[in-house]
Specification:
Elements: H1 8-23, E1 28-29, H2 30-37, H3 41-54, E2 64-69, E3 72-77, H4 81-85, H5 87-100, H6 108-122, H7 126-129, H8 135-138, H9 153-165, E4 167-175, E5 180-194, E6 197-204, E7 209-214, E8 218-227, H10 236-239, E9 255-262, H11 266-270, E10 279-280, E11 287-294, H12 300-305, E12 311-315, H13 317-331
Helix pairs in contact: 5-6
Length: 334
């Protein structure tokens, strides 16, 4: 059977294929490559075969290599072995984790990440270790307003053991509402990281319901070494539905909220996930609208007030009144 002769268009696409793979930081799914080149998977496979026939490495290995991950075929170039082995990216990933967990300095979690960092970097060749000298300058995390959990190492370790082994805990928690410490027997369900603070979703046996505790308000935690069955139907996302963070009204029904922002904030606002139900409307007369549904406005009010004169709340009326009241109280301080 006579081989199909290459054409100018196919040569251009093969060059584009090499360019796409050379710029990627990891193996690329072939479906994504085919979509970018606007060709079929069959044609793409033909290009791979042609490239490997003409550009095989000196040791006879393929120029364009294939791996499979999660039942997906992915391609990379032969000189990208380091990407596949991911040594450099493992190091970067661990360093990012170290940076993000600065607020947990002095705790078992941060110490464990530091140990992993030592193991990963300890396997590096001396010539490669020199690249780490300026890592703290190349990758930074400000941790603006982060909490400090250094004095909570024992409490945090106890909570983590309860979560991992599914054992009940007895906690002593300071209630800001009642301004006193209370003891609870709990079943820890979820350790939640929210805005550089830790929270614990737990079933409280005395209340027969799930409550959310701020971890830094837990003064003591004791493992009761009594197993409990982790509920299969438990979904932590349900606990924060309708909230603008983690606090949710017990009986509040979701209500539509409409806010308008000055158009120059479009990129800042629309490129972030503030709420699962958020929707944005096009810019009109210098403003754009953001819509979502809330059942609790506790965390929303300080967030929207931070934008000052660049924002205005349109609905509901009760929220508008609450914003006006907050502004009046703020003005009265001056």
């Amino acid at each position: 059977m006579e081989k199909r002769k290459p054409t100018y268009n196919s040569a251009v696409r093969m060059a584009q294929l090499v360019s796409i793979l050379s710029q990627a930081w990891r193996p690329v799914p072939i479906e994504l490559v085919a979509e970018q080149l606007n060709i079929s998977l069959r044609t793409l496979q033909r290009y791979r075969k042609a490239l490997n026939e003409q550009l095989a490495a000196g040791d006879g290995s393929s120029f364009l290599k294939v791996i499979r991950k999660d039942n997906k075929e992915m391609w990379y170039l032969t000189d990208q072995e380091e990407i596949v082995n991911a040594n450099a990216f493992r190091i970067i990933s661990v360093f990012v984790a170290k940076s993000l967990l600065k607020f947990m300095e002095g705790t078992v979690v941060k110490d464990t990440i530091d140990n992993i960092w030592e193991v990963v970097t300890g396997q590096m060749a001396p010539s490669k270790k020199k690249q780490l000298e300026s890592f703290d300058k190349k990758i930074r995390y400000t941790g603006f307003g982060r909490k400090n959990y250094e004095d909570m190492d024992i409490t945090l370790a106890t909570i983590l053991r309860g979560l991992i082994h599914e054992t009940k805990l007895q906690i002593t928690h300071y209630s800001k509402t009642d301004r006193q410490e209370k003891k609870h027997t709990i079943r820890p369900y979820t350790l939640l990281l929210h805005r550089d603070s830790l929270y614990l979703h737990a079933y409280v046996e005395g209340y027969k319901q799930i409550r959310t505790f701020t971890v830094d308000a837990i003064k003591e935690a004791v493992n009761l070494n009594e197993k409990f069955d982790y509920p299969a139907d438990y979904n932590p996302e349900k606990l924060t539905e309708g909230s603008f963070g983690i606090y949710q009204s017990k009986d509040g029904k979701p209500e539509k909220v409409v806010v308008e922002f000055k158009e120059y904030l479009w990129d800042y606002i629309t490129t972030r996930l503030w709420h699962p139900t958020q929707k944005f409307l096009p810019i009109k007369d210098g403003w754009f609208k953001m819509e979502f549904y809330l059942s609790d406005i506790t965390e929303f009010i300080p967030w929207v007030l931070a934008f000052g004169k660049e924002v205005r709340v349109i609905e509901p009326d009760l929220l508008c009144d609450a914003i006006k009241n907050e502004l009046d109280l703020a003005i009265s301080n001056y």
